[in-house]
Amino acid sequence: MFGSKESKIEKAIAKNQPEAIIKLLNDKDKATVLSAIKGLGSIKLDDSFNALVPLLNSPDKDYRAAAAESLGNIGNEHAKAFMLHATSIEKEEDVKKVMENACSKLKEHHA
Fold first, then answer.
1. Which residues lie closer than 8 Å to 30 by C-beta, 6 or more apart?
2. Which pLDDT belongs to residue 77?
3. Inter-residue contact 8 to 40 (CB < 8 Å)
4. Which residue range is the domain that position 30 belongs to?
5. Alpha helices in 16-92 (DSSP H)
6. Pick from 44, 40, 38: which is nearest to 19 by CA?
7. pTM for this structure?
8. pLDDT exceeds 70 at position 111
């Protein structure tokens, strides 16, 4: 079952269609959700950005870190404010480090 979801993510990335991936963000399987978050980071569209931003506040630290990394990959100029805020309130040091690295990537995109 997971394989079919993984291939669905890959196909959506290839077609540059985030909608199919966004639906998987509510999947019960954590690995599927993490793959979906990573996949959205490969599709540099507003829909991907809009789906990832709320995950910066997820109760799951792995989701927060993955969302930050994906937002850094997307490079959307509006992500900076969300990332700076999320970084300022993040309690987990490992997640905070991922967020800081993602903020650095954003600065590179807009230097």
1. 60, 62
2. 85
3. no
4. 2-109
5. 18-23, 30-40, 46-52, 61-74, 79-89
6. 40
7. 0.92
8. no
- The number of distinct structural domains making up the chain is 1
Helix (H, G, I), strand (E, B) or coil at 61: helix
67, 55 in Cβ contact below 8 A? yes
Average pLDDT of the segment spanning 57-82: 95
Instruction: Quickly tell me which residue has 């998987």 as its tokens.
Output: 24
CA dihedral 72, 73, 77, 79 (to 10 degrees): -40
CATH number at residue 92: 1.25.10.10
38 near 18, Cβ under 8 Å? Answer: no
Q: What are phi and psi of 42, to 5 degrees?
A: -90, -10
pLDDT for 106 equals: 83
Identify the pLDDT of residue 13. Answer: 96
**Residue 69: how many CB atoms within 10 A of its CB?**
19
